[in-house]
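[Meeting: bench + compute handoff]

Bench side (C.D.) handed over the final construct sequence. Compute side (W.E.) agreed to return the predicted structure before the next meeting so the bench team could plan truncations. Sequence as handed over:
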Amino acid sequence: MTALSEYQRLESTGIWRESPEAQRREVIVAFGDATLVISDGRSARALAHWSLPALVRLNPGSTPALYAPGPDADEELEIDDETMISAVEKVRFALASRLPRPGRLRLWVMLGMTAVAAALGLFWLPDALVSHVARVAPPAQRDDIGAIVLAELTTLTGAPCMNDAAEPVIEALAARLVPGKSIVLLPTALNGALALPGKVLVLGMATVQGYDGPEVAAGNLLAVTLAAETTDPLTEALDWAGLRSAFALLTTGELPQDAMKGYGQALLATVKPADKPAVTARLIGEGVDPEPWLQSLADNEPYALAAPSAVEPLMSDSDWVRLQGACMR
């Protein structure tokens, strides 16, 4: 039986050459399920068996048809019988379509890997890039971005408060509680403190003017300082600015214009829970009574604490009054 059910027996004559240097000879061409059999025209001895799926047409569309058993083979077969040519073409294409396609498998594997890489890029790359940019940013660059964020904040809070009487008081407070940092007082809209990229901490005047002493202000300043040791304020700012802005900062050293627009409003609207045990421990370590700060918290949950062994006032009453009047010019 042949590879095509409509043919009970199919064979024809052909001209076969074993190699380019060999003499051409007349042969009988026949095929079965998946092979083309080439036999001697006189003795009927089989000379070659060619795989039909691997068969190569050397002159598509031309007659007589020229075939080879593979793309790099030396053998060559010439057939001029139209019925045989049609049958050979139909059979080899039918068989070739049933064979496994390693290239197609590789294509699907590559597409799958590309999809996985794209998913990783979508969900992992932004965080990884932002974290890297924040990690390698030099101090001067951090300070510049902190200044941009502060300017954005002041469009909502008003200009920072400071006068000649309050300036040395706030500098002394920073040196005592948060060495290496500077504290900026904002008149409105901020009830607490924020750590900005760089060396700036901002403190709302509500924590100064609304209390009898500096303990609440101190607790807020320490709370954001400790939080910044875990979550970098620059990373948070770049998360807001977006991947493109982070990449621009990495490659050019500058953020695109308006990259931080709206970030001030987002900061003022964000309320982060303070790490009460850590802040309380720091206050006690500084000789500051943590009770006023704990009572000022919105949750107002009871918290067992040990009183400081020795209380060291953060500032005198007169200095506290000077600080409360920082917004007075």
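W.E. noted at the follow-up: Residues 137-324 form one domain. C.D. will use this when planning the next construct.
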